[in-house]
Sequence to fold (221 residues):
Amino acid sequence: MRKPLIIANWKSNPLTLKEAVVLARSAEKYSKIFRGADVVVAPPFLFISAVSKILRQAKLGAQDVFWAEGPYTGEISLRQLKNLGVRYVIVGHSSLRMTLGETDEMVNKKIKKNSLKGVKKSQLERVVVAYEPVWAISTMPGAQVDTPQSAVRALRYLRGILSRMYGKKYADKVKMLYGGSVSAKNARQFLILPGVDGALVGGASLRPQEFGEIISQASAF
Ligand code: PGA
Fold:
């Protein structure tokens, strides 16, 4: 069993730096207590610098990255993120596709131009794939968490694609997460599933105690 990975996706929350500091301190505290899980915190760009000073055990993430360096108004490059200590970047989240019209081509560019191009098979353990049905995201009207059976099926399908691309041995190195309305109440039922290596957590990552509870559950596997 691999060490589970729990990623906090704060989206465009919280509203103030003060609240961001509280959330980051709490995530760091729980990561230190429950070391059986790896924790990544992905704040909005605006708070990355402050959060980087707080996280030690938990790793720093970002919610997006641009595909080039240079004079691109409003965009952030991979090098800038790396210089701030960012270790993980979320690419291709459905909210960018839906609100900003991000296309497969753009997602592809963000991945390829940012050195994942020709990713060596041995580096596949650094790749994380999250299966997150749009209708399961907690902020969608009528959102409903997916069923464990459906999540297993989807992740098996995705791993199958990776196996055909890289061979099973290497495809198995990629971590696969479930995301969409993950809460302290339902996290366990996903974390326990074969082929699920962790969770991408939005709303519940903004509730410090609940997020701590999710980390604790993941740590117990
Ligand atoms: P949710 O968000 O946990 O609030 O459903 C997850 C995400 O969109 O990454």
Summary: The mean pLDDT is 94. The domain at 5-219 is CATH 3.20.20.70 (TIM Barrel). The pocket of 2-phosphoglycolic acid is lined by residues 9, 132, 137-138, 179-182, 200-204 (CB under 6 Å).
